[in-house]
Design a protein that fits this description.
It contains 18 helices and no strands. The chain is mostly helical and about 400 residues long.
Length: about 400
């Protein structure tokens, strides 16, 4: 008798074992397949959302929308939110001042970040806009919109003159020329023109009227707007910030703005292509001066006083530091740089809870600046971009 017929029980047990193993393998395979399909579906969803964000991130409407949201939420988080404001020790007027300097910084970046020209004389444009608005408020009109217009027009005129003179030279010579002209204007304001500027005491007696003859800038906005924005003054300055971001975005993404970048990358090559490099440089200087004058006029409206130091070279150095901190060549980075600089200057140096380090706030600012420059050459905005890219890469890997 053969072995197969001799052991039927063994054959039955073996077949049963094989069937069980096949069933287990099938079940495991189905489970793995389901998990794989679920993981692929999740990964594709993340990839799709990321692709949509990448395509919409740099659009004009996205940039403007995010700016509006940031301007709307910032004073509440900085000055009134239960936990955050306690940590930051912020207050309403400092939030408004940060927006003013933010306009100054993003305008300055047109020249430094987009065209590659370093100016140490932008205090002249900022201070001239501030003095023009202050003088007009005491002698011509107190309407805020007209004061802003007068400050901007005056700064534009001065920027044409200074740009025409300074841009005859490039590199370090351009930077020194702008510094020299700014210091000349500072000393003229301190002595020969003291009857207009107030000399060392600054320009006092500045009066700011109601917006459109109805809304007092110092009063609080009604309802939810008051909770978020605070005062009409902040809303007024915030509106100009949004308009400034919109205008600068359109300029930089236009063919004209692309020429600025070409000049920054290789000035000689841009000239060989056929562009009038000097004319484009002058245009960049005037555009930058326009926003400096706008910020200066808003500075006068905010503080209702124009100090002589607004024309001093230190003001020019401050806007350079703000721009580098936030990220040279980025649209919104200088806003963050201005916020950090002013927070250290006004909060860290102001005492409690920073009493132990308040006398050394300049040292703190220097350490922050050196750390950012050494570790994050692209500034705070570049750091945010790097973190965003790392998160996106990890999501793709999953």
């Amino acid at each position: 008798m053969s072995d197969e017929s001799a052991n039927p029980a063994d054959r039955t047990e073996t077949a049963t074992t094989v069937d069980t193993a096949d069933a287990a393998d099938t079940t495991e395979t189905e489970a793995d397949g389901g998990e794989t399909l679920g993981g692929a579906s999740s990964a594709s969803t993340v990839a799709s959302l990321q692709a949509r964000w990448e395509s919409a991130r740099d659009r004009e409407l996205t940039v403007i929308g995010l700016t509006i949201v940031g301007v709307s939420l910032f004073p509440y988080l900085f000055a009134r939110a239960p936990v955050v404001s306690d940590l930051l020790q912020g207050y309403q007027e400092l939030a408004s001042l940060m927006l003013v300097w933010g306009i100054f910084a993003i305008g300055f970046d047109i020249l430094l970040g987009r065209t590659g020209l370093l100016s140490f004389g932008h205090a002249a444009l900022w201070g001239t806009g501030a003095y023009a608005a202050g003088w007009a408020s005491a002698n011509i009109t107190t309407f805020p919109l007209l004061l802003v217009a007068i400050g901007v027009v005056t700064a534009v005129f001065l920027s044409v003159v200074l740009g025409w003179l300074s841009l005859r030279r490039g590199g370090i010579y351009f930077a020194i020329l702008t510094l020299a002209f700014a210091q000349m204007i500072y000393y003229m304001a301190s002595a020969p023109l003291a009857f207009i500027t107030g000399g060392d005491n600054g320009l006092t007696g500045v009066e700011i009227g109601s917006l459109l003859g109805v809304f007092d800038l110092g009063t609080e906005l009604p309802s939810v707007a008051g909770t978020l924005l605070g005062t009409w003054r902040y809303a007024f300055i915030g509106a100009f910030l949004v308009l400034s971001v919109t205008a600068i975005y359109r300029i930089l993404n236009s063919p004209y703005g692309i020429v600025f970048q070409a000049i920054r990358e290789n000035e000689q090559r841009a000239e060989f292509v056929g562009f009038n490099v000097w004319r484009y440089k002058l245009a960049a200087f005037v555009l930058s001066g326009t926003f400096a004058g706008l910020a200066g006029a808003l500075f006068t409206i905010h503080g209702q006083y124009v100090p002589l130091s607004s024309l001093y070279w230190q003001t020019s150095g401050e806007v350079v530091i703000m721009t580098v901190l936030g990220g040279v060549g980025s649209l919104l980075g200088p806003l963050f740089g201005a916020g950090i600089y002013l927070w250290v200057e006004y909060i860290v140096s102001g005492g409690y809870p920073f009493d132990w380090i308040a006398p050394y706030w300049l040292l703190v600012l220097g350490l922050v600046f050196v750390t950012v420059v050494v570790l994050f050459p692209e500034g705070i905005w570049g750091l945010v971009g790097d973190l965003r890219d790392r998160v996106a890469t990890r999501l793709e890997e999953r």
